[in-house]
Write the structure tokens for this entry.
Amino acid sequence: MMTSLPKKLEGKVAIVTASTEGIGYAVAKRLAEDGASVMISSRRQKKVDEAVAKLKSENLTNVKGVVCHAGKEDHRNYLIEETLRSFGGIDMLVCNAASNPSPGPFFDTTEEAWDKVFHVNLKSAFLLIKAVIPYMEKRGGGSIVTVSSVVAHRTDAVPGVHASAYGISKISLIGLTKALVPECAAKNIRINCMSPGVIETRFSEVIWKNSFANKNAMALIPMKRLGQSSECAGVVSFLCSDDSSYISGETIIVGGGMSCRL
């Protein structure tokens, strides 16, 4: 009689921010498929309900969801509290929440837009990481994955589309990831980063729905196609699992072979 092997994330608990669609949803789905209990979140209750229902329709019953605006302290605290109440601990955190309210040229960026981008994309990620660390430590360790972007590695990643403050915030997120390695390692917690390239999501439709931007993006991608959210999810699952047990402070670019440096 054949017995099924335990899934690689079985018994683990994950929080994934901004996870009701796109890359975040794909990550939550993959972590659940790999055995983790997953708390998803979004700023809108309707999206949370729809995403949880969709995941459960695929027999992923180890998933729950809450409303969470990553930029608000009370929302972050509620996200953590509900995860602990529902699943009893936290082993993994995926910081996927991001904002880009001013995608135009640098000098068109208002102070308000600049502050919002850095508050959501960088500051809130740090504060959420800081808040979950004690709970991971109680579990004997854990894994954190931040989500940056290919525009952090090259400003011309998508010719004709301005990244401005968004790109700088994503560079800073990579820096934050590296800076946190020593203190996280002392607590048996690994922290890594995943940088998506041009992935076919609603967030990036300004690129792939625009023939000029899409054509220029394809010129930089050796694989000559857009990436899919599931291809990002596999990388995150790897970084959360023991398969990457000796990896911390690294950034994996999911960019179809696009030449990148930082």
Notes: The two ends are 52 Å apart (CA to CA). The domain at 13-254 is CATH 3.40.50.720 (Rossmann fold). Residues 111-138 form the longest helix (28 residues).
